[in-house]
Design a protein that fits this description.
Length: 285
Amino acid sequence: MPIAIHLFGGAGAGPYKGVFGGPGAHNGIAVEKTTYFRELERVFGLFSHEMHAHLIRLSVLYEDLRIEVMALSRPHLEALDETSVSYRKNYFLRRSICTLCEFSETFRRLDQNEDFKKAIFWVRHFGPHKTHADEFELRLTKCIRFFDTYDGIIGKVRNDLGGHFGETTAREVIKTIAEAGYGQLRWFKDTSVKRAGVNFDFAEQITARAFMRHRGWRSKEGFARHLIRVVVSGYAHATRAVHVLVLIYLQERFSYESRIHSTGRYGRRTQCQRKTISSSISTRS
C-alpha cells in the first residue's frame, strides 16, 4: 500500500495551523507590506562575497521551500493530481526534505562566516534592533539546534529520494518488491489528434517503500507523520531565521534607496526615501 493519504491534512489543519499559511497568508486581516528596490550588485556584489553567496542561496532555498510546503499542504491541485493526490504530496514531501538539507548546510556555513559574525556583533551593540538582539540570536540558535537534531534523518531520506530517485535506491527497493503487491499503469491514446500518454500509478508504491527504509522502530504511518512534522517544523524554523536575517541585514542593504510602501487591504501606496546606518562590515556602497 502507498503512504496513507489521510496523513496529509489540509492547509492549517490540526497542529500545523499557522505554519502552512506561511508569509503572505493573513486570513483577510489588513497588513502592512513594504517593497524595496535596489540594484542587486549594490546589495550583494561589492564586498563580503562569501557571506552574500550564502545569503542569496538561502533566499532561493527559502522560496523553494515555501512552494514545496504549500503544495504539500493543499488538499487539491488539479493540474498536479493527475496520477493521484497522495503522489503529488509524496513528491513535494521528498522535495522539501531535499531543500531542508541544503538549507541546513547553507545556514550553518553562514553562521560560521566571519563577516556574518561581525554583522551580528554590530546588531547587538549598535544596530537599530539592538534591543531585540537576544531574541534574534535565540531564533538563529534554535534553527541551528533543530537541524543538528534532525540532520541525520533528513540526510538519509534526502540521499535516497531528495535528489530524485537514484539507482542505489531503486536497487534496494527491488530487493523487497515482492511485498509491494499489485501495481497499476494507465495508458491512454487519443486517435483524433494522434496523441498518447501514460500514468505510472505504481510509482507511488515504489517511493513509499523507499521512504520506509529508514523508519526504524516506527510504524509506516508513524514514520510518515514524523517526516511531515520534521518538514513543518523545519519550515517554521527556516521562516523565523530568514525573518531575522532580513531585519538585521538585508532590509538595510535594500533600503538605502527608494521604497514603495503599501498598507491595508486596498494597497494604499506612498513613495518615500529612507536613510539608514551603514553596515559595520563595509563602507556605504
